[in-house]
Amino acid sequence: MRRKITKLLENWKNNPGKKPLLIKGARQVGKTFIINEFAKANYRSDRIIRINFEERPQMREVFDSSLDAETILDRLSLRPEFKDIDFQVDVGHPLFLFLDEIQKCPKAITSLKFLSEAKSYLHVVGSGSLLGVQLGKKDGSSFPVGYVEQATLFPLDFEEFMWAFGYSEQYIENLKALAYKPNVGSLIEDSVHEELMGLFRKFVVIGGMPAAVKSYVETKTFKECRAIQRQLVEAYEVDIQKYVEGATNKVRVASVFKAIPKQLTLTSHKFKLATIEKNAKSREYGDPLNWLISSGLVIKCENVKRIEEPLESFSDSSDFKLYYFDSGLLLSQLSDDDFYAVLNGTQNIDVGGVYENAVAAILHRYHGDGSPLHYHHQGDDLEIDFVDRYRRAFLLIEVKSGENLKSASLNKALEGSDGHIDGLKVSRKRVMEDGKEKNLPFYLFALMFANNLYISSVD
User: What distance separates the 2 farthest-apart alpha carbons in the chain?
Assistant: First the structure.
């Protein structure tokens, strides 16, 4: 399947000022496959060195002493598994070193500072499913600040999903351009609108995990797709027991992760710790929450008390909602009846918070930096699903999965606001605009916020 990160990797390779690249992302989003395919397409086979520290923990010995590039390459050249690799310095045919599951070898992360000095003939990419957790640790290990770049791979976004279903890049670009035209509602015919809404509903229930998408594209049935999704959730639960440190934290991380689908079925989607542990204290769940967020499995959305700059200053980290990073995985934890109600568009309410979760995942991918999303709750009669920034204005987003588009909260929040706050309803309806409020169908919203991945330097 075509993924945007391939272009990112190509641009990185061609950048003469490149630094070692760390690619984060949850397990099974496609990191290892994509990096291997990129290596095969761009480097000679006898110049590709692959090390997976989880599969071959003995490879950590290579990084036990001196970490300069020459010494590391000399050690690797003596390993029998690399007997067919040409280790000669050759700027015209650089070596490609892929350090997979690099979080298993903290000294390999430290070595990136020294490996970066050999960038003319050595290109280095590291990845790991729990790399975000390792990078967030304060364990005394040395992180090479200023010597590495980072990118995050997420599940497929809606644009990549459309590619997988055979839609051309030009068609998608045409569709994106319509979102900004004032008469777009009359341009999209009913049959086109229904087809695209049907496709978006498939995106919601299948999600963007490559194995799940591939299964449906090849079989056109949901049975195997749902089985794959459930297996993935079970694998994440195994990871929690395997990698979370401390017996109490294991229980708390697992409890929070398992509770998210149930909490999203409640009228208020605010996450309540008391529902999983009586007399639970926020400070006791700080590390468990950070583990889930750093691992990429969970999206946090914090309440902002005021919609003003700087927005983050008004964010309450103890008042939050939690979402799965992929809506298909959330659906896998709900009943078959709920699954088909979403797929067929027969529900009048947001079953299990699924559409809200889908929008959260879209915004999370769009920003790409893992920082919390925001919502706004005030008193008993005002709650805005998401507060974001778009085109130099605050964007108040209400998710409307049913037929009723009325929103007293949005109307109240927009009363008396100046030009720096706009309202947006995201729904199954066609494009409509009324003053400061606009309605976009889910598919156009998803394409507006379909992000091209970017590399960030760690300074």
Answer: 72
* Whether domain 4-152 has CATH 3.30.750.24: no
Q: Cβ–Cβ contacts within 10 Å for residue 202, how many?
A: 19
Of residues 446, 265, 305, the one with CA closest to residue 365: 446
Distance of alpha carbon 22 from alpha carbon 125, whole angstroms: 6
Domain residue limits, the chain? 4-152, 158-450
Burial label, 405 (beta-carbon count in 10 A; 0-12, 13-18, 19+): middle
Residue ranges in the chain modelled with pLDDT below 50: 140, 459
Burial of residue 440 (CB within 10 Å: 0-12, 13-18, 19+) is buried
The rounded distance, in Å, linking the Cα atoms of 159 and 150 is 22
Give the tens place of pLDDT for each residue, 161-171. 999 999 999 99
CA distance 10 to 2: 14
Query: How far apart, in whole angstroms, are the C-alpha atoms of residue 358 and residue 404?
Result: 19
**107 Cβ contact partners less than 8 Å away, ≥ 6 residues apart:** 60, 63, 64, 67, 141
Structural tokens at position 439: 């309605």
